[in-house]
Amino acid sequence: MKENIDLTNIPKHIAIIMDGNGRWAKKKGAMRIFGHRHAIQAVKDAIEGADNLGVKYLTLFSFSTENWSRPQDEVKALMELLVKTIIDEISQMMKNNIRLEAIGDIESLPKSAYDKLMEAKELTSKNTGLTVILALSYSGQWELTQAVRRIAQKVSEGKLSPDQITQQTVAENLDTAGIPDPELMIRTSGEYRISNFLLWQLAYTELYFTSVLWPDFRTEHLYAAVKDYQKRERRFGKTGEQVKP
Questions:
Q1: What pLDDT digit, counting tens, does each position of 182-211 carry?
Q2: Catalytic residue (choose from 19, 21, 173, 175)
Q3: In this structure, are residues 217 and 200 in contact, taking their beta carbons and an 8 Å threshold?
Q4: pLDDT of amino acid 198
Q5: Residue 155: inside a domain, yes or no?
Q6: Number of neighbours of residue 13 by Cβ within 10 angstroms
Q7: 67 is annotated as an active-site residue
Q8: In terms of DSSP bridges, do strands 13-17 and 206-209 run parallel, antiparallel, or are they unpaired?
Q9: Domain harbouring 43, CATH code
Q10: What count of other Cβ atoms lies within 10 Å of the Cβ of residue 95?
Q11: Do 223 and 49 contact (CB within 8 A), yes or no?
Q12: Which end of the chain is more exposed for a tag (fewer CB within 10 A), N or C?
């Protein structure tokens, strides 16, 4: 499928809501964590596919702030799986020149997960290839609230006046400051919503929904999403005639 993709029109930043692990496990008659374990291959395929296409940023919605309310056994197993996956994949990330970043309330993670995440970020910090961004203990509303607090603090300290606040000011105070907004967002499992993910950043993002459950997601599914993206006309409020070359 890669041969049918226009490599001159690749999204610089792709974001993915990785959904359907629990339903996948239920279909197999297994516990939810079984689905989470089998989702690791999907993550690997998405990273490999994005890297092969020349994508610069890949953001993966890994764990939301709302996910903390799930059964504690599942949360504990997910955190342990996160630590194990980071440990197992760090050498491959170094080999493939991949940089790891994270957004969200990562200080709320268990110490073992937080420490391994920080270690992986430091080890890969000088890599110059694909940047993989894990959204962990993340929600768009949480991120916007944090940004408002940062801006309010600057106003209270006299470093910023209210009439100086612009859209750029907000963007610079988000967790994603310095990272371009996604051009393409993919959600698996057949759900048609963005579930509190990158609320500010998705303002002009092309949305792609697939019924494939996340553990079954493979490189060809990523390529299909990119091909669909390339059929679209990104107008940003202009007319089609204005954006045509």
A1: 999 999 999 999 999 999 999 999 999 999
A2: 19
A3: no
A4: 98
A5: no
A6: 22
A7: yes
A8: unpaired
A9: 3.40.1180.10
A10: 8
A11: yes
A12: C
For residue 28, give both structure tokens.
């197999």
Nearest alpha carbon to residue 105 among 165, 63, 48, 160: 63
Per residue in 57-95, pLDDT (tens digit) is: 999 999 999 999 999 999 999 999 999 999 999 999 999
Q: How far apart are CA 151 and CA 163, in angstroms?
A: 12
Q: Catalytic one among 67, 96, 127, 196? A: 67
Question: For residue 62, what are the domain limits?
Answer: 9-139+181-231
Residue 167: both structure tokens together: 């859209």
DSSP 237: T
pTM above 0.85, yes or no: yes
* 176 located within any domain: no
Domain count, the chain: 1
Residue count (the chain): 245
* Number of alpha carbons in the 13 Å side-chain half-sphere of residue 98: 26
**139 closest CA partner among 190, 89, 86, 201:** 201
Judged by DSSP in three states, 203 sits in coil
Q: Is residue 89 in a domain?
A: yes
